[in-house]
Specification:
601 residues; Glutamine Phosphoribosylpyrophosphate, subunit 1, domain 1; Rossmann fold; seven-stranded antiparallel sheet; 21% strand; globular; binds fructose -6-phosphate
């Protein structure tokens, strides 16, 4: 969702630093962008803003005045259409205060009405604009502060923040105090500590070229960020908070595209290497988590989207490998089941970003009830990470393509290791992951890619596709369909093979495109039976399997890796979705209407 980047320091190219920061946040998904600067050396002048709909691309802010305090925003519209005026930053009536915001101000209508009565003029349709007028209003009633008194501006921001309903992250600047004042409730914000300069961002990856020392703001925390100091305090009580400095472990290079045209392609290519790393890590953590799971009353794995598919896949891994019944759920649906879950249960929360609001909401409620939380999360330090009782880092490095790829396969590898640890045979799990890494490498580097590219060429104009799988290949089918629809915009549906005859078969006629996932496991004969049924009705059948069969019109070979074959199968699905997208002329990294980190409900 919205990206935020702010700079305060000595460098008078602050607008350019901010624009570069926003470019590193592009992957989050957005429909407009904007930068605001306090012009250098003109204390009484107004804040200057440049904001526009569309992509940042090659945009420049060279026409903005020089300044050492600036911030910017990429907007993913919620309230108010996608227009230049609705883009952030927003200014108050005097144009001396500016705000950027991530979240939704739920009581914006009543605040707006009150402020209009008090004479404020609104120019946009956004909920965000109320924040800056509210701060303006509070400042009007604040007497000039004596030298050592509480600074008036941050006090006004605090008062305004406490008036907002909903989950919001805000940053405000003004023309008189050389500082950014930030507050967070729900939406993520991270403070970056520099040398004579400091930063704010919605995502730590944007800070990597500047600093690795960060403090993640907790809910209700505020920060006054100046070039030489950072003060953190509680927005409700005013109490000072000691910065909890953390070191970012990712490198700047990890977050760049390198030789690849798109992040998604780069991230898919990283998968064999990541799998080998996971297989060679010490298995002690997997063993410890296996014990925790065994000691819990019941265990539920939850996630959203691709992470939800990983949760569903985990149930098959745990039952097939560890003979253990793991429950699973989609995060946004799980709220309704929480009340009947015992306090001695455990929730395994799966997430790449660790900021998905649907997931965080369930985790918060579960935690309040004393349910143990294990988070398996890629962004170390994220909200989910900080909330959990037990954490397992996915270790996939920055994932910037909106479509999740390497975070999914790395999650599966960790879950498979835990399942093997529950069986008391973690070494076999490690060996399987190595096999999966080899199988993945074969898919990515061999003639299989050419086959996938040719297939994508042939399929680029189809309107519907069906993906069929059974057992653990059912979540693969769902994930394959999700990847295809989200980036190529072809309608794709994942179907459990056994369900075909219960409805979906009615859709199959001559030429219907069907992908059949047929690994070397106990589902093979059933799923091939389904393939024959599809073929009998004229479907064009594309087989993903360890061996070719007469039922397949097209065949992509996937080397068997036992229970871990889910991993190379999903990688074939990712590649197919990617090349379909390229053939259709779309940008796989930034699918329409979607955002990388879904921080609103
Ligand atoms: C699809 C995709 C999304 C995410 C979902 C949850 O490719 O990326 O479906 O999986 O928004 O995100 P995380 O894993 O960050 O909680």
């Amino acid at each position: 969702m919205c990206g935020i980047f702010g700079y305060v320091g000595k460098n008078n190219s602050a607008p350019t630093i901010v624009l570069d920061g926003l470019k590193r946040l592009e992957y989050r998904g957005y429909d407009s962008w904007g930068v605001a600067v306090v012009p250098e050396g003109k204390k009484e002048s107004v804040i200057v803003v440049k904001k526009k709909t569309g992509k940042i691309g090659d945009a420049s802010v060279s026409e903005l005045p020089k300044g050492t305090l600036a911030f910017g925003h990429t907007r993913w519209a919620t309230h108010g259409g996608v227009t230049d005026i609705n883009a952030h930053p927003h200014l108050d009536c005097t144009k001396t205060i500016a705000v950027i915001h991530n979240g939704i101000v739920e009581n914006h209508e009543e605040l707006r009405a009150t402020l209009i009565k008090k004479g404020h003029t609104f120019v946009s349709e956004t909920d965000t604009e109320v924040i800056v007028h509210l701060v303006e209003e509070y400042l009007k009633h604040t007497k000039p502060a004596p030298r050592d008194a509480e600074p008036a501006f941050s006090k006004a921001v605090q008062q305004a923040f406490n008036d907002l309903d909903g989950l919001n992250a805000i940053i405000l600047i003004n023309t008189t105090s050389h500082e950014m004042v930030a507050a967070r409730n729900g939406s993520p914000l991270v403070v970056g500590f520099g040398d004579g300069e400091n930063f704010l961002a919605s995502d730590p990856a944007a800070l990597l070229p500047h600093t690795k020392q960060v403090h993640y703001l907790e809910d209700d925390e505020m920060a006054i960020v100046r070039d030489g100091s950072i003060h953190i305090f509680n927005a409700r009580t005013g109490e000072r908070v000691r910065p909890r400095k953390q070191l970012l472990t990712w490198s700047e290079k990890d977050a760049e595209k390198g030789k690849f045209p798109y992040f998604m392609l780069k991230e898919m290519h990283e998968q064999p290497g990541l799998l080998s790393e996971i297989a060679s890590e010490s298995p002690e953590q997997a063993k410890a988590l296996a014990r925790e799971i065994r000691e819990s009353d019941r265990v539920y794995a939850i996630g959203a989207g691709t992470s939800g598919n990983a949760a569903r896949a985990a149930t098959y891994l745990f039952s097939d490998i560890a003979n253990y019944l793991l429950n699973w759920g989609i995060a946004s649906e799980f709220n309704h089941r929480l009340p009947i879950i015992s306090e001695s249960s455990m929730l395994i929360a799966l997430s790449q970003s660790g900021e998905t609001m649907d997931l965080l909401e369930v985790v918060k409620k579960a935690k309040d009830r004393g349910i143990k939380i294990l988070s398996i999360v890629n962004v170390v330090g994220s909200s989910l990470w900080r909330m959990a009782d037990l954490t397992m880092p996915i270790g996939a490095g920055p994932e910037k393509g909106v479509a999740s790829t390497k975070a999914f396969t790395s999650k599966i590898a960790h879950l498979l290791l835990i399942a093997y640890a529950m069986k008391g045979d973690v070494a076999s799990g490690q060996k399987l992951i190595i096999r999966a890494a080899r199988s993945a490498q074969k898919v990515i580097n061999s003639s299989a890619v050419d086959q996938i590219k040719n297939l994508a060429k042939a399929l680029k104009d189809v309107r519907h596709m069906y993906v069929i799988g059974k057992g653990i290949s059912f979540p693969v089918a769902l994930e394959c369909a999700l990847k295809i629809k989200e980036i190529s915009y072809i309608h794709a549906e994942g179907i459990a093979a056994g369900e075909l005859k219960h409805g979906p078969l009615a859709l199959v006629t001559k030429g219907t495109q069907c992908i059949v996932i047929a690994p070397n496991d106990e589902t093979y004969h059933d799923v091939m039976g389904s393939a024959m049924e599809l073929k009998a009705r004229g479907a064009h059948v594309i087989g993903l399997s360890f061996k070719n069969d007469e039922a397949f019109d097209d065949f992509i070979p996937v080397m068997d890796a036992g229970e871990a074959t889910i991993i190379p199968n999903v990688i074939v699905a990712q590649l197919l979705a990617y090349y379909l997208t390229i053939e259709r002329g779309f940008d796989p990294d930034m699918p329409r209407n979607l955002a990388k980190s879904v921080t609103v409900k």
